[in-house]
Hints:
Layout: E1 4-5, H1 8-15, E2 22-38, E3 44-50, E4 54-62, E5 68-78, E6 83-84, E7 91-97, E8 100-108, H2 110-113, H3 129-132, E9 133-134, E10 137-138, E11 142-150, E12 157-164, E13 179-188, E14 191-200, E15 209-219, E16 224-235, E17 242-254, E18 257-268, E19 274-285, E20 290-301, E21 325-336
Antiparallel strand pairs: 1-2, 2-3, 2-4, 2-21, 4-5, 5-6, 5-7, 7-8, 8-11, 9-10, 11-12, 12-13, 13-14, 14-15, 15-16, 16-17, 17-18, 18-19, 19-20, 20-21
Amino acid sequence: xxxxxxxxxxxxxxxxxxxxxxxxxxxxxxxxxxxxxxxxxxxxxxxxxxxxxxxxxxxxxxxxxxxxxxxxxxxxxxxxxxxxxxxxxxxxxxxxxxxxxxxxxxxxxxxxxxxxxxxxxxxxxxxxxxxxxxxxxxxxxxxxxxxxxxxxxxxxxxxxxxxxxxxxxxxxxxxxxxxxxxxxxxxxxxxxxxxxxxxxxxxxxxxxxxxxxxxxxxxxxxxxxxxxxxxxxxxxxxxxxxxxxxxxxxxxxxxxxxxxxxxxxxxxxxxxxxxxxxxxxxxxxxxxxxxxxxxxxxxxxxxxxxxxxxxxxxxxxxxxxxxxxxxxxxxxxxxxx
Length: 337
């Protein structure tokens, strides 16, 4: 994400001596697409979607103790309808030093971020969260009331541990709604990988559940990248359990143009509860900040499941139809600033 220094930071520095030591930035993403959605049954419509668009502010200050104080406020902007939320995305305050980083607030769990090495279609038609974030067996969450420790990098290896104390405004007596999320990441040359574990206690909003995830990406050459993904979910409700597997590749046609493809399978617990997703896309970067793309994605459902390739990371929320093939075609524009 490109970060642009706020010119107003200069004015703010004139107002208080403390601001002289602060590095304040504003950043954001405007990401919209025009989508054709067909659930394979009786829904076939054109939509405009705002896709995880956001506006954020962050600051950091080098303290006399040799630590870096940092904060961030980030909220969702829905460009297609003109609404916003100031701080519903990653919002936190923390300290960073030789010991690593510790922060408190609401933000993506280490488990959620661990899909990164294989995340070819994030916030687009065909996002893998359409298979990993389903019903009450949902992961890829942004947990509130969370304390997160990130270790220093030990060569290519780094560890993350996050603990969510409770889901509501305050902890309730006798209510077990805590969550823990752990990841190990490895990034060395052409190889990028992550493994993660996450667990929610029995009284969590979507029930007691846990999952293991592994994701990897490997640059075979300057123009070809291959990725792989695996996740397995256990849940108090057996019908919410599932295994997810994926393989994909990205090929550079030119320095600023890439072809992408991903195949995913979700095997749900129960009869006729499996789904397959195929995503094909082409993306062209106009420069480092602006890209345009077109994606075609299809989900083929067994009789007892109704998943689509369009319901995650995007403002479009049209339902699928059980036992049908849901097809979406998307043309998008993303501008990072």
